[in-house]
Amino acid sequence: MKLFTFHTPELTPAESLPDCAIAVDVLRATSTIATALAANAEAVQVFSSIEQLMQTSEQWSPDKRLRAGERGGAKVPGCDLGNSPLDCTPDVVEGRRLFISTTNGTRCLERIQAAETVLTAALINRSAVVNYLLRYRPATVWIVGSGWEGNFSLEDTVCAGAIVHQLAARLAGDGHPLEALAGNDEVFGAVALYTQWQNNLLGLMHHASHGQRLLRLDCHDDLKYCAQTDSLNVLPIQKEPGVLVKAE
Prior knowledge:
Largest sheet: 6 strands, mixed
Number of helices: 11
Helix content: 25-40%
Cofactor: Mg(2+)
Distance between the termini: 22 Å
Mean pLDDT: 95
Family: Belongs to the ComB family.
Pfam family, one: 2-ph_phosp
Shape: globular
Low-confidence stretches: none
Organism: Leptolyngbya sp. NK1-12
């Protein structure tokens, strides 16, 4: 297994795809997707365009759909929800499909949706992702951060580091040190960032530019929630392009 970390979707190789691609948008799309599926949403369908989201979701009965739209951290007018995982409680989402479009995370998923296997990861479901990789051992794995409008983000990189750190620890006894797993230099950087901040992930999010943006929008509870590690045992997996369900 070779792991590659990319800070943004734009940095992924244009001419190839991995056996397994993992989208990361800790603040907040992939945290929201995992939370919605843990609360028994029927599925989560992602869109880069709000207009496309509205058009597709119109084909669903209002009692079977939820529209979630976010731009710049704020809820899009006309949507039922923004992009807060705290809104995805069982009484709201159970049995319904969440149609979601966000500033960065859904764009990342579009870039990798043609890979053989597509997963989403956040800190809250890190172990579920690691368990999948250990079970299936895909030959090449991309961990792709969503970043912020094409730029590096601390929170996505620290999540990539958290995944690799745990995976390397569990494979160390099999003679697979980090050096053997790493496919690019970014993997080492991500692990170093996680190692430095693993005991203060909320503090890291307060330093992150998007974390500060969300604090200005009074989303401190979202940051606290998204900074948790391994709080959900759920793995979102793509069953068809743009549609994610809970892996069995």
